[in-house]
Amino acid sequence: MAAAPRRRIIGSWWHQGPTRHPLTSCANPARGSGRYHRQDEPGVWYASNQEQAAWAELFRHFTEGGIDPFELRRRVGRVSVDVEVLDLTSSTVQKSIGINAGDLLSDDYAVTQDVAAAARDAGFDAVLAPAAALPDRETLAVFAHALAKVHPERSAIRQPPPRLADLLPLIRPHERVPDVVRRAYFTIAGTGAEAIRRRRK
């Protein structure tokens, strides 16, 4: 992994998370497992290359039936980064480390956790990868040791924007998302963004 090419990423990224946490905080060591980290190992902070992709991650993992996710409030904001990444969006890099696009989107995180741990140990700041929630978007997983290279620009506590209702059919729910939530997404997508706007007036 140490010989893998390094790509420098400079620019703006988006993050959404619980209202009680600062925009760029992450548990270190990690309190639970995720796509690019394991529980009790060094933490990872996640961001998306578009605001709507950051919100899509909330819907991908939402499991609480009977609660309208559009009524939740989350901290969402933009950051600037200057990090060296292992670029898993590159098919050449994927091939060089023996993985494929399917590994990166699977709900089995074993492969991605192994790759991230190796990248962290090799001194990378982060992993750049295809987003699992929305097609054609990207996820930036920044290792805790490199969080000083992530600088908050602005943030606010907000509800998910109504326009996300039109994207629900494109969002790939995690396998653990229950059927009742999936049916709710179908209903919300059917009524559309305008119904959410009217409800909030």
Summarize the structure.
The protein has 201 residues and is an alpha+beta fold. It has helices at 51-61, 91-96, 101-105, 110-121, 179-191, 193-200, and strands spanning 7-17, 44-48, 74-87, 126-130, 138-143, 150-158. The radius of gyration is 17 Å and the shape is globular.
Q: Would you kindly provide a written description of the structure presented here, covering whatever features stand out?
A:
The longest helix has 13 residues, at 179-191. This protein has helices at residues 51-61, 91-96, 101-105, 110-121, 179-191, 193-200, and strands spanning 7-17, 44-48, 74-87, 126-130, 138-143, 150-158. The chain is an alpha+beta fold and 201 residues long. It has one domain. The mean pLDDT is 96. It is globular, with a radius of gyration of 17 Å.
**Can you tell me the residue ranges where pLDDT is under 50 for at least 5 consecutive residues?**
none
Q: Averaged pLDDT, please?
A: 96
> CA-to-CA gap between the ends?
53 Å
Count the helices. How many? 6
Total of domains: 1
State the total count of DSSP E strands: 6
Bin the helical content: 25-40%
Into which percentage range does the β-strand content fall? Answer: 15-25%
Strand and helix order: EEHEHHHEEEHH
Shape: globular
Please compute the radius of gyration using only Cα atoms: 17 Å
Determine the structural class based on helices, strands and strand pairing: alpha+beta
Largest sheet: 6 strands, mixed
